From TrEMBL:
It is found in: Secreted. Keywords: Calcium, Secreted, Signal. It comes from Bradymonas sediminis. Its main location: secreted. This is VWFA domain-containing protein. GO terms for molecular function: calcium ion binding. Pfam families: TSP3_bac (PF18884).
């Protein structure tokens, strides 16, 4: 089936891809949707700095002046400029110590972090044979990650990436003995390997990182990376090479990079590359659903309030077909009916007593947190069981929202549950005619990974929105100049020393701003940006503002979804006019290519008014949906 990944589904033989049907009750949606770039979308990131404090060459010969502290302070300062990043600092010598934060696992408090960096310039003495116990420091880092994961909702976990930055100057002390790497309790191996073993140490170190990475992913995190910064401080280069072997193995196990610094003056941490080290986001599912058209064996039936009960069924139950929650208790009529509660009597079950406000919907999936508590679904995940189908749609259509069942065929009609939900047909009945007449038809073209330049929105030069950036523009920090006398705008490319020519912006609309080097060049070689101007919001005084231009990497696909049936709904209790159909578009992504795990959702809502026989607003048979119309829940801890 075409459910996961939905990258080649077509309706060949079922629907003509030519002209749209001349039926006012049918609609098509088309557009391009892309995964989010984790860096641009500011997905949560937790950074742990593990730094060597072992007394010895690091402090006496290699970096007596403490130059590395300056580089670390620059790293902290640059990293905290990213609002989505939190940090922790662990120093290790004879024993490891968490230097920041004082409380909790991670912090954004610059005072705590700068103080921790300053403390790293103090050498730690040996504790018996333990002089540089970075293995124990790594275990402490794992404990921080475990605590953070336990405190993070699952819906936020799947976007959270952990990055370990290890700054190390020498070998693990005490070093592992060969017997530490013996499998099981083989006596012969233990007896023959009772001496210190750099090879065994390397194996153990890499194993710790691999285990930590596997654990983070198993708990639903987006990923974990490891960056190895080797300060080659030992006078004996043979020891430096031994350390290099261990750190390269750790970096490989952590999917990161190893860097060697032969002198302290050259030490630095590439913040951009660290923040870029994120799990790949891939499309997993795109599906549409008219929530006012309830799938039925004989075709869609009207559900005016979109609660999952048809208008006819609500009249039979005595509930209000114009109000999804007849008794106003933040539990929909459908959920109350399924859970054996009274939809006509205000209920406040114990499972919902601590939820405030009562109608809170953390993940924006259409189920309140109270309903999710009753159903056993996760209030921070749109798709609890990770099969790609939103919990609410599975609940309404009667499939298993707690266990993946998209491959099953509950009604035995030869069409899997997943395909039925995609087509908006009933997975509980043999409805062959409904498939042919009313099934949604998908055409999806996978465009693969695409790179484009994007810019920050101006904060101080108000009334200006950057809508397009030419391919020739330089990624980096450009600058926007506003002069109210014209008024005019100028653009300086990141690779230019001066701005381009001023452009008069005396009316609303879109304008092109060329860089200084664009003069005389063909249009496709010009470094320019397009801006949309709102004159009423322009500043009253001259202003300039630096603008960050970055290359955004996203996986995109073009789609058309046809044969969406519109229903003749009645006016709702909240004043929503008769005829309104709310069509939802769900776009689910897989983190790190993990198609069987819950992934982030973005959703778009397209309201359409339909009144028989021929009134449809918008009147177009095909509606375009822009990528930026898809929104995602703003989850907080």
């Amino acid at each position: 089936m075409c459910l996961i990944p939905l990258l080649s589904c077509t309706d060949v033989g079922l629907y003509s891809p030519g002209k749209e049907p001349k039926q006012s009750d049918r609609l098509s949606l088309t557009g391009r949707v892309c995964t989010e770039d984790p860096l641009r979308a500011k997905f949560p990131m937790r950074v742990i700095v593990l730094a060597d404090q072992a007394a010895g060459p690091l402090f006496s010969d290699y970096d007596a002046a403490g130059l590395r502290a300056g580089a670390l302070n620059d790293f902290v300062r640059t990293t905290l400029n990213q609002s989505n990043v939190e940090m922790a600092v662990i120093g290790y010598g004879g024993r490891p110590e968490k230097l920041a934060p004082t409380d909790g696992a991670f912090t954004r408090n610059p005072g705590e972090l700068f103080n921790a960096v300053n403390r790293l310039t103090l050498a730690k003495p040996c504790q018996g044979e333990r002089c540089r116990d970075y293995r124990e420091a790594l275990r402490n880092a794992r404990a921080l990650i475990e605590d953070d994961l336990a405190a993070t909702p699952k819906g936020e976990r799947l976007r959270t990436h952990y990055a370990l930055v290890m700054i190390n100057a020498g070998p693990q002390q005490p070093i592992a003995v060969g017997s530490d790497c013996c499998q099981g309790t083989t006596l012969e191996c233990i007896e023959d390997n009772d001496q210190p073993s750099p090879a065994c140490e390397t194996q153990l170190d890499a194993g710790i990182i691999a285990s930590m990475r596997k654990y983070a992913i198993s708990q639903g995190a987006a990923g974990l990376g490891f960056q190895a910064m080797h300060l080659a401080a030992e006078a004996d280069d043979a020891i430096n090479l031994q350390v290099q072997d261990a750190m390269e193995a750790m970096a490989f196990a952590g999917g990161g990079a190893y860097q060697r610094f032969n002198n302290a003056s050259g030490f630095s941490i590439n913040t951009i590359e660290l923040l870029r080290s994120r799990a790949e986001m891939r499309p997993k599912l795109l599906m549409a659903s008219n929530i006012n058209a309830l799938a039925d064996p004989d075709g869609p039936v009207v559900d005016s309030d979109g609660d999952g009960l048809s208008d006819a069924e609500e009249l039979r139950l005595g509930t209000d077909p114009t109000n999804p929650d007849t008794d106003g208790d933040a539990i929909s009529d459908l959920v109350e009916a399924l859970m054996g509660l009274d939809p006509l009597h205000f209920d406040r079950p114990a499972a919902c007593s601590a939820i405030v406000p009562a109608d809170r919907d953390t993940d924006l999936d259409g189920l309140t947190d109270c309903e999710e508590a009753l159903l056993g679904t996760d209030p921070t995940l749109v798709d609890t069981d990770g099969d790609g189908i939103p919990d609410r749609l599975e609940l309404i259509q009667g499939t298993d929202y707690l266990n993946p069942d998209t491959q099953a065929d509950t009604d035995g009609d030869g069409v899997s549950n997943g395909e039925e939900l995609l087509q908006h047909t009933d997975p509980r009945s043999t409805d062959t005619r409904a498939h042919l007449s009313f099934g949604y038809r998908y055409e999806v073209n996978d465009l693969g990974r695409m790179e484009s330049l994007v810019a920050d929105r101006p904060r101080f030069v108000t009334g200006v929105h950057i809508t397009a950036i030419s391919e020739a523009t330089t990624a980096g920090v450009g600058e926007l100049f506003f002069d109210p006398a014209g008024p005019t705008l100028q653009w300086r490319d990141a690779d230019d020393g001066v701005p381009g020519p001023p452009v008069l912006i005396d009316a609303a609309g879109v304008f092109e701003l060329d860089s200084a080097r664009s003069a005389g060049l063909p249009d496709d070689q010009k470094r320019k940006i397009s801006v949309d101007i709102n004159p009423t919001l322009l500043p009253d005084e001259a202003r300039s503002e630096t603008i960050r231009v970055v290359a955004e990497q996203r996986h995109c696909m073009d789609y058309t979804i046809r044969n969406i049936k519109l229903m003749s709904t009645v006016e709702l209790a909240d004043g929503t006019p008769a005829g309104i159909n709310n069509i939802l578009l769900y776009f689910n992504t897989a983190v790190g290519g993990r198609l069987d795990a819950p992934g982030p959702f973005r959703m778009a809502q397209i309201p359409v008014l339909y009144r028989p026989p021929n009134t449809r607003v918008p009147s177009d048979a095909v509606l375009g949906v822009k990528d930026d119309e898809f929104v995602r829940p703003n989850l907080t801890r």
